[in-house]
Amino acid sequence: MTEIADINDSSAKAQFVLYWGDMGSQWGVNRSVAQIHALLFLSVNPLNAEEIADQLAIARSNVSNSLKELVGWKLIRRVPVPNDRREHFVAEVDVWEMAMRIAQGRKEREIDPAMSAIDNCVQQAVNEPGLDPIVLGRMHEMQDFLKTADRWSSQMLNVPKSKLNMLMKMGDKVFSLLKLTGKKTE
After folding, report:
1. Which of 4, 97, 102, 150 has the largest CB neighbor count within 10 A?
2. Residue 104 contacts by C-beta under 8 Å, 6 or more apart in sequence?
3. pTM score of the predicted model
4. Do the beta carbons of residue 11 and residue 45 sit within 8 Å?
């Protein structure tokens, strides 16, 4: 577990950074990447790579690679600091914007390639002699599911943040309206 050198280990900030690192690893994100993101998210001032490495007690090379990944996800950006030639970084602090960028990145890196792969399998299966129709049917079901998920994702990514926030807060009302609470029905 990464030690947080400059932060009192029992502080709320240290616990947040450690917890965010644990959550990140559960979501398939490198622990150091997630901890650096958390540290920058909570930082009031821009930090350079040396400061990040010192505060998290991780190797400078690990920090450098992690910063590149976070910049690629557009979760952090470089900012100039007067009288300092080193690169400094700040995180996106609007949690809705951050969530949208993560969702967009995951769609591009996970859903889009999955859709392409399943489409290729279905195309191959359609012309494959002797393929059990049940197998083809299941492939079509997966293809339809991914298309529906992709369409929903694209719609959600285009909803303005204020409306998306309102929509999420309406969860119980939406479930009630659609009669989705209580008994499980198909």
Report:
1. 4
2. 157
3. 0.77
4. no
